[in-house]
Amino acid sequence: MSTGTELTNHQFRLAARPSGLPKPTDWEYRAQPVAGPADGEFLVEISHLSLDPAMRGWMNAGKSYIPPVEIGEVMRAGAIGRVIESRNPRFAVGDHVSGTFGVQEYAVSDGREVRKVDPDVAPLATYLGALGMPGMTAYFGLLDIGRPKAGQTVVVSGAAGAVGSVTGQIAKIHGCRVVGIAGGAEKCRLLTDELGFDAAIDYKAEDVKAALREHAPDGVDVYFDNVGGDILDTVLTRLARGARIVICGAISQYNNTEPVRGPANYMSLLVHRASMTGMVVFDYADRFRAASAEMAGWLADGRLKVREHVVEAGLEAFPDTLLSLFSGDNVGKLVLKIRD
Amino acid sequence: MSTGTELTNHQFRLAARPSGLPKPTDWEYRAQPVAGPADGEFLVEISHLSLDPAMRGWMNAGKSYIPPVEIGEVMRAGAIGRVIESRNPRFAVGDHVSGTFGVQEYAVSDGREVRKVDPDVAPLATYLGALGMPGMTAYFGLLDIGRPKAGQTVVVSGAAGAVGSVTGQIAKIHGCRVVGIAGGAEKCRLLTDELGFDAAIDYKAEDVKAALREHAPDGVDVYFDNVGGDILDTVLTRLARGARIVICGAISQYNNTEPVRGPANYMSLLVHRASMTGMVVFDYADRFRAASAEMAGWLADGRLKVREHVVEAGLEAFPDTLLSLFSGDNVGKLVLKIRD
């Protein structure tokens, strides 16, 4: 049996399915008392919320790789918190934990799909970024689906984002030539000057096709696509023979109110004997531990640099902060820190 | 040195790049004297011309998997003929040969990429179909790219065509459940009643999505796509997890005067962890001999049935006969037989 607590839990629940960008009225902000943990459970005080483009897809009805968030449910989100009460022998008060705790201040968990994280190894926010789902997405999408060989050219879109910035650096570690596509001169400078990309293309200012001709003169061997739309279509025209396209996301299409535009140049797959393959990070869960350990090693020796954009604000800031993912303003992993 | 002959060679040369369906004015019909073979060459009297959807693509300018036919060149075509004069020790007068001899009555060859064919093993037209490029396309596209396992569901579009009809039968031989998509009741009857498909969907009369739900209730494991367009988009909504889409052609798009429409549902690749891969049959040339031998065995034991649509007419019939590929009237491998 669970018991009551003196705590109040603020939450964002899904109030309506958005058309286009989520509006304030698509959310319900609710306060309710925190129930204590039942036997086998523990109570988490959430400190960091992961804000990801994929969340937009979870708000839509219909079949996808994961069930949608239902109307009235707490919005799904990865989060980091601290155990403050426990009736589960595997989790002790004071443990830092990572899990899909939702957009709220407190969560009760039975420990399934929750992992302990160590703030001495990396800052807590990093467990939502390079050592969390974005990092795992980059690692398995690039290495398992993209299968780059040393010396090959890897192009990454959304390259200044949480996934793209890590993808490009892993490709560098594997000896590839890496070209990032991002929006704006500042993001492009970050890629080349701080993260070690060989070249960056500012899609807002440059002709992407011409820039690919310059920076990937032998064609693109691996394209890691986070954005879809025009950029996917353009990269399709510059494939090397046998190219692998990793379909990781399509942020350009997530807030469409019109139907998604398919890649008109898809027959380039035939011309270049290329493939386009979708990936979902959860499929690799049984290898997360090993991948995280390898990534932590790269972090420690400085070969992998992380960029986190930590917004420190109350939970109320969630709706507006989420929107910054889609405006192009965000660089690196976006985290909403609601408590120290 | 080559010598003159008394023969006249009629040819179709490309006069203009078509917009949409090829028009009569896109062709030049020319008569010219036949030059005899030089040392190392032989002269072929062409009897059968292969008419294939891919020819439409070869008429377009621009980079593709094969150089375009240039304006003024004899139109490229696979063909079967008989050696009538030879100065090449590997080819004797009377040999039947298959090669890319072009849309003409006579061709001189040095023997490169020419193979001898045996009319006692199979009718000559079959060497342009099941034992020719369409058969090789079906074999390698399905088995190497599609990689179906026994018990899985294979869907083939353009299923009554030269490639599709063979693809479905190879999938059956490999123990799969096979669903063909074709236009018209007659083609659909052919698939189920004569070629052993488990089900056929008449895309002109049926709701393809609903029919897929019925005939592929567990989803589509392998989709062999010859058509592109709406049908590709619809199959994308019915994929099984880990599905493989083989991009072999896109006949619905070849005569577009508007830009190709990309598959709007391509993000289904992510939802279903699926892949879409292009294939070009020429890449498998070093395995054609073994594949042909296996296919000939299936022909001999009746497990593979071929449908050839042999139009017996003069070379002048070429332009109109080619168009029948795009009107949906053709069933099986289209061959223009210009001589006994």
Report what the structure shows:
2 copies of one chain form a homodimer. Chain A is of the alpha/beta class and 340 residues long. The first copy, chain A, is built from 9 helices and 15 strands. In chain A, strands 3, 4, 5, 6, 7, 14 and 15 form a 7-stranded mixed sheet that branches. A 6-stranded parallel sheet of chain A has the order 10-9-8-11-12-13, sandwiched between helices. The first copy, chain A, has a two-stranded antiparallel ribbon with strand order 1-2. In chain A, helix 9 links the parallel strand 14 and strand 15. In chain A, helix 2 crosses helix 3. The radius of gyration of chain A is 20 Å and the shape is globular. The interface between A and B is medium-sized, with 33 and 33 residues.
Please sum up the structure shown.
Chain A has 340 residues and is α/β, with parallel strands linked by helices.
- The number of E-state strands of chain A comes to 15
Net shape of chain A: globular
CATH class of the largest domain in chain A: Alpha Beta
What is the rounded Rg of chain A?
20 Å
Q: Report the total helices of chain A.
A: 9
Structural class of chain A: alpha/beta
CATH topology of the largest domain in chain A: Quinone Oxidoreductase, Chain A, domain 1
Main sheet specs of chain A: 7 strands, mixed
Please tell me the total number of domains of chain A. Answer: 2
Low-confidence stretches of chain A: none
N-to-C span of chain A: 30 Å
The whole-number mean of residue pLDDT values of chain A reads: 95
Instruction: State the largest interface.
Output: A-B, 33 and 33 residues
What is the CATH homology-level superfamily of the largest domain in chain A? Medium-chain alcohol dehydrogenases, catalytic domain
> Strand share of the residues of chain A?
25-35%
Query: What's the helical proportion of residues of chain A?
Result: 10-25%
| SSE sequence of chain A, one letter per element | EEEHEEEEHEHEHEHEHEHEHEHE
What is the level-2 CATH architecture name of the largest domain in chain A? Alpha-Beta Complex
Assembly classification: homodimer
